[in-house]
Amino acid sequence: MNKLISLILVFCLAVLLVPSLAESIDVSGEWIGSYAGHDIPMTLKADGTFSMNGAEGTWILEGETLSMTAQGETIVFTYKDDVISVSQQGQTIEFKRASAEETAPADGGAAEVAFADVNPATAAEDFNGEWSIQYVAADGEVHANETGEVTADIAIKDGDITFGSATGFSEVFGDKALKMEFADGAFTYSRSFLGMGFSFKVEMLQDGMVAVTIDIAGENAVLYMVRTDAAAEEPAA
Q1: If one looks up domain 2-97 in CATH, what number appears?
Q2: Can you give the residue ranges of every domain in the chain?
Q3: Which of 120, 153, 158, 232 sits at a 20 to 30 Å CA gap from 103?
């Protein structure tokens, strides 16, 4: 789950940044960024190339200005006091050198859950409402959402999706509504930036749960959500 969130944040960070140019000095090494309570790993190689959760390109440093370019797009960071940072629209992400003892946080134990089949006959208006993450499925395992702070992770209204408090999505998108496309009983959304593809598909299951399948640069996960804006109705006998 943490890996998926980091990928989402890296993609969203790229969407927010402004292009610019610069030249080089070596700041090669492993870096860790912190944003919305999650880690974003970044590698700056001595040959002037970088990788950041699936995005790859080149970097150039001139003075305190670090420019990173991929697929013809350039994003601009500041390098000062051995900290790499970027600020946009009042939000700041700082990258610090990764120490050898840093390790990825341990995930909770996998849950044994059987999910209902997709309901292809679901109408677009059936998705309207607020939805909360209950389970996350990734890398062949299912984990229960244990943040304890989930209220309304997403809100859907007439094909628009807005991200709520959990998983840091609202830190990036704010209250901006993304317009989805509806076909064959499901909503979809996709775009690409800095060579990274980002897409998701929202489907209704037979038991009324919503499944959001996310694909970021080839990494996949499914968020299983339950309705939070109204009590679930009992199925007809």
Answers
A1: 2.40.128.290
A2: 2-97, 124-227
A3: 153
